[in-house]
Specification:
The protein is an alpha/beta fold. The protein is built from 9 helices and 28 strands. The strands form 8 sheets. A 5-stranded parallel beta sheet has the order 5-2-1-9-22. Strands 11-18-12-13-14 form a 5-stranded parallel beta sheet, with helices on one face.
Length: 412
């Protein structure tokens, strides 16, 4: 089946400039961007804004709509539909960018020797430059039984969110969230605010274990419990089955069982680097390895966003992504530019207890904890007593600017 194409732009070569008119920047080169998340669409938009007129083709495995992924975990509290979260349709994106946007199509192979990609429908496309903005996929620590798969969700993109939202739109439901990291906690807060009954299950003893030291994690636990969110922390999910009454039955490692109507699996993300690895590009567990100009081990192939590991740093947050988009747009437009990441803290969307964290890049010698109740500050220090990270809850989040000024850059 031929892939749907949102828009086919005119060929730039059909409109040649007059002899005395300077050629537009990169007017005859072809750029292919694989992925239409914030990274892929953001890069195409940045190039067009600075006057780049090369042919751009974006290939999307999903619908190709333009949306802000961080807003997916705010929709229920704000009573927003998936269509309201979508800022532009794929057709509108293609028209805005004067680009071709191929939707619902997988790229199955990279041919680095002749600069081509093969699509799932067998078609091949040529590129002069290629950008891999394939993002990250949900990490599944267990196999979901087929008979319950339709009631289990990961919500890693707008298409999946549409299915999730449709399931929950008719009435309040019991939602079991497996995983207490950033995604799990934000959805727990959002679904609770949207009127659903939430149970949060995770093997760690407190929420946000990668962002918060235990005392601050316990503070978030207290806020969740006070609001009515049920916690089953320090426990591992053993089985996921259908009960006789057609409810989902989640049995934990201590034998406890919880009933739910649906399950949200928020057990982490893994960079989608398989395509690059199969083509012989250098990859690691943290993603596709790139230099400070986002260039892979192949000089005309770049990686951007959640899939990119920039000199050992993979930061799956908005500010590093935006900095990478800006730097790569300059590099592709002829001005090689190194990307830098500042000391940018993570703002966790848990209205029940505001949380801001800048996790240290290395294991701290100690955490210095200040405050009490919901108002807490944690300073991560190295062996010399220097601040290398911090975490804040409640009203203390106002210190984020002050502490960010003295924290070391993520990638200076």
């Amino acid at each position: 089946m031929v892939a749907k194409q949102a828009f086919v732009p005119p060929t730039f070569g059909d409109c040649m400039p007059a002899p005395d008119t300077p050629l537009p920047l990169h007017s005859h080169s072809a750029l292919i961007i694989i992925g239409t998340g914030m990274a892929g669409i953001g890069l195409a938009r940045a190039l067009r804004r600075q006057g780049d007129t090369r042919t751009i083709t974006l290939v999307s495995a999903d619908s190709g709509d333009d949306y802000s992924k961080p807003l997916l975990s705010t929709g229920f509290a704000k009573r927003l539909t998936p269509d309201q979260l979508a800022q532009r349709s794929a057709r509108e994106v293609a028209e805005e960018l004067n680009a071709e946007l191929i939707t619902h199509t997988q790229v199955v192979q990279l041919h680095v020797d002749n600069r081509r990609i093969t699509l799932g429908n067998g078609h091949q496309l040529h590129y002069d430059d290629l950008v891999l903005a394939t993002g990250a996929a949900p990490r599944m620590p267990f196999n979901v039984p087929e008979n319950v798969a339709k009631r289990c969700f990961t919500v890693n993109d707008l298409d999946e969110y549409r299915r999730f939202h449709t399931t929950l739109a008719s009435a309040p439901a019991r939602v079991a969230i497996v995983g207490a990291g950033l995604v799990g906690c934000e959805f727990a807060n959002d679904l609770h605010a949207g009127g659903h009954q939430v149970t949060l299950i995770a093997p760690e003893s407190t929420p946000l274990p990668r962002l918060l030291p235990e005392p601050l994690g316990q503070t978030l636990s207290n806020a969740f419990q006070a609001a009515g969110i049920q916690l089953a922390l320090g426990r591992t999910l053993q089985t996921l089955t259908l009960a006789p009454d057609n409810a989902l039955s989640l049995r934990l490692d201590n034998g406890d069982r919880y009933a739910a109507d649906i399950a949200l699996l928020a057990t982490g993300l893994t960079p989608r680097s398989e395509l690059a690895e199969a083509a012989g590009l250098a990859v690691s567990r943290s993603g596709i390895m790139v230099d400070r100009q986002l260039r892979t081990s192949q000089p005309n192939i770049f990686a951007l966003g959640d899939v990119a590991c920039v000199e050992g740093v993979n930061a799956m947050y908005v500010q590093p992504l935006q900095a990478s988009v800006k730097a790569l747009a300059s590099t592709l437009s002829g001005t090689p530019t190194n990307v830098s990441f500042g000391a940018w803290p993570v703002l966790v969307k848990t209205a029940l207890l505001p949380v801001v964290a800048y996790p240290p890049a290395t294991t701290p010698a100690r955490w210095r904890i200040e405050g009490e109740g919901s108002e807490m500050t944690a300073i991560a220090e190295n062996k010399d007593g220097r601040l290398i990270g911090f975490a804040l809850t409640g009203g203390c989040v106002r210190r984020k600017v002050e502490l960010s000024r003295v924290a070391p850059a993520l990638l200076g």
